[in-house]
Amino acid sequence: MQRIVWDSWTIQHKFGLPAVSLLPAVQEPITDFTFAQASVNEWFYYTEPILLRDADQYAMANGVEVRAPFMDHRLVSFALSLPDREKSNVRLKELLISSFKDQLPPEVYQRPKKGFTFPWEQWMRGDLRPFCTARITNFADRIGSSYVKQGWNEFLKGNSSISWSRWWTIVAVEDWIERNHLELE
Fold it and tell me: Mean pLDDT throughout 67-83?
């Protein structure tokens, strides 16, 4: 999954804002999915700058020493270099599991995945809806983009292809603009 929330093309052509130089330069929307590109994007735009930084900060704040055993530069380089044919049609983490299967007990690699995420999508469609709608509307008016309002309405209708994170970034940016009494030029 690509973790870039808004690509440069959308920011420039749909929002009508200048292209953002911190994002990869694209001339058109990203439509051709490749596992190789998704892996590179995942590493450089999410794992390294967000996950590893957050894990380190949270651990240090609590006096805990944390190790990320699968972040060895040789292993990461190897994983990023694998062609799509090696990454498609396999169960999640199958390559990793098959590499260590003879060294691990079955209860380690057969247990179901566990995770924790806040229910942002439910909150944004529920209790946070007025807060979010006000900021998204203000942002859309500020930049003169009907695309933003249309997309928010699609999200509210339950369109599963529209991630809550896209809209939360707009809510957060608009809230910050308002709190700091800023104007866009």
Answer: 80
